[in-house]
Design a protein that fits this description.
The chain is mainly alpha-helical. It is built from 10 helices and no strands. Among the domains are: 76 residues, no CATH class; 29 residues, no CATH class.
Length: 200
């Protein structure tokens, strides 16, 4: 009797397959929603308007960028905050986003940089951190737009072409020479750069 009761409560094989298919489809649908939501959030936080939603960026960093050729130039090509500070490749982008969130959100919430005076106090440390990151990745973000293999040295000023050829021969990367091209250089930056070079 017990055997018959168990048999009667077990759904037929085609119903079990149907339930399994429904669960699988629901799992795929939920996975797509989660993945899409994550990527949407990632891209929303990868815009200049998002960067400027923190008041620390307005009046200091963004104002400095607007003074440079990266913001306004004869060709109309503009580099925004993410172009220089966020990698294009997905894996590197996620790592950089997590790293930046760990550093920058607590600094924002605690008011660590909420006045020009506080910003200046931490400018050297922030710049050094970014320079070291760019040095370690071979100035990857610079190379999204500037590729030495595409440079025509004959169209550059003699001094620039000589420096670029020399840098390439010595295995230097963009940030070794091009510090302060988008933001003001902090006090003590030469000493900090020399100290970093001497450690190598």
């Amino acid at each position: 009797m017990k055997h018959e009761k168990t048999h009667q409560n077990t759904p037929p094989a085609h119903q079990q397959a149907g339930f399994l298919s429904m669960k699988l489809l629901m799992g795929v649908f939920i996975g797509i929603l989660l993945w899409g939501g994550f990527n949407w959030s990632l891209e929303m936080t990868n815009t200049e308007s998002y960067c400027l939603s923190c008041h620390e960026m307005q009046g200091i960093s963004f104002d400095e960028l607007q003074e440079t050729v990266h913001y306004s130039n004869r060709t109309g090509v503009r580099a925004s905050c993410p172009d220089c500070h966020v990698p294009k490749e997905w894996t590197h982008k996620v790592v950089q986003k997590i790293s930046a969130a760990i550093r920058e959100l607590p600094a924002h919430w605690s008011g660590k940089l909420d006045t020009p005076e506080k910003f200046e106090e931490h400018r050297l440390a922030m710049a050094t951190l970014e320079w070291n990151r760019m040095k370690a990745n071979g100035s990857r973000e610079c190379k999204n737009c500037h590729d030495s293999k595409s440079m025509d040295y004959t169209k550059q000023e003699p001094r620039s072409s000589a420096r670029h050829e020399e840098a390439e021969a010595e295995g230097k990367t963009c940030i070794d020479c091009h510090k302060g091209i988008a933001h003001h250089l902090p006090k003590g930056w030469k000493e900090a750069s020399k100290e970093a070079t001497d450690k190598k």
